[in-house]
Design brief:
The chain is an alpha+beta fold. It has 3 domains: 2-124, Helicase, Ruva Protein, domain 3 (Orthogonal Bundle), CATH 1.10.8; 134-219, Lysozyme (Orthogonal Bundle), CATH 1.10.530.10; 237-292, Muramoyl-pentapeptide Carboxypeptidase, domain 1, CATH 1.10.101.10. It has helices at 2-5, 9-20, 35-45, 50-66, 89-95, 111-124, 153-158, 193-198, 205-219, 237-249, 263-276, 286-292, and strands at 33-34, 75-76, 134-137, 150-152, 175-179, 188-191. The longest helix has 17 residues, at 50-66. The radius of gyration is 22 Å and the shape is globular. 32% of the residues are buried.
């Protein structure tokens, strides 16, 4: 697939993870909706999404007409996103691929079809083979004024930008756009054209960055090296996992260790705070984590 479409396999795996947790979300029937019914409901009941829903409903009916999926299997999110890699119906009609050769473009049950469909979308929207999505960089003093500007990597290096791991940028004429997604106090990112191609999948900068960082983790390059600014005393994701592990080891928490703090985690925190004589907020904090350490 990587050879056929020219899209890095780790990017495809990252998208699959972001969209459906590698298909795990599709195993929960309570989260799945009949796509034509969901879109018809939106078209009728949601004025803000009515035009979108009408267009997608017609596309969903065309999918049924083409016979790739049975009516009962045409399931997706409440807004019509479908399958392992969450394609809306119009995008499915444009990019869906029968990669396993069974005569059907089945992004619901065939992982090859789903990943090939994502690769096809990226390839047809300008993915540059063999190039990365971008680089984390250290922001030099006073360089925040360059946010949004595009220069060659050599020009950014001349302005004092460097990678946090000490490695230089590749030589050549590759151009990159400076993004300061957490403001001047956070890490800088020099985004290449592939970053903007990922945004054809989802237009949010945060989505494209998450895909890129996760792809780097999968490839073994490591994740983001600089800290993301956050309010004092709050936990980063690794610390959230650690807190849940420690609460579980102490017998206060029996839920999944996933970094998400729902009612079970908050009840455990409240119980521990009560035992330690702390204010019972039920919220994770560095003060609590340090106490458990």
């Amino acid at each position: 697939m990587e050879r056929h479409f020219g899209v890095d396999r780790t990017i495809l795996l990252a998208i699959w993870s972001m969209e459906s947790n590698y298909g795990a979300a599709l195993e929960n029937p309570e989260r799945l909706h009949n796509v034509p019914q969901a879109l018809a409901t939106l078209a009728w009941a949601d004025p803000k999404r009515s035009n979108y829903a009408k267009k997608q409903l017609l596309a969903a009916l065309e999918i049924l007409q083409e016979g790739d999926v049975a009516p009962k299997q045409l399931t997706g999110s409440w807004a019509g996103a479908m399958g392992h890699t969450q394609f809306i119906p119009t995008s499915y009609l444009l990019y869906a691929v029968d990669a396993d050769g069974n005569g059907k473009r089945d992004i619901w049950h065939s992982v090859p079809d789903a990943l090939a469909t994502s690769a096809n979308l990226l390839a047809k929207n300008g993915w540059t083979t063999g190039k990365t999505w971008g680089y984390e960089a250290v922001l030099p003093a006073g360089a925040a004024r360059y946010a949004g500007q595009t220069k060659t990597l050599a020009q950014w290096a001349a302005l004092g930008f460097a990678r946090p791991n000490g490695k230089g940028f590749p030589r050549g004429s590759d151009r990159a756009t400076l993004k300061l997604m957490a403001g001047a106090e956070g890490p800088a990112f020099l985004m290449t054209s592939n970053f903007f191609t990922i945004k054809k999948y989802n237009a949010a900068d945060s989505y494209a960055l998450a895909v890129g960082l996760l792809a780097d983790e999968i490839a073994g390059y490591g994740g983001m090296q600089q800290s993301w600014p956050r309010p004092a005393g709050t936990l980063d994701i690794k610390e959230k996992f650690e807190l849940q592990h420690r609460m579980k080891a102490l017998g206060y928490y029996d839920g999944e260790v996933d970094g998400n703090f729902g009612s079970g985690s908050k009840a455990a925190i409240s119980a521990i705070q009560q035992r330690l004589g702390m204010q019972q907020s039920g919220e994770p904090s560095r003060t609590l984590l340090n106490a458990l350490r």
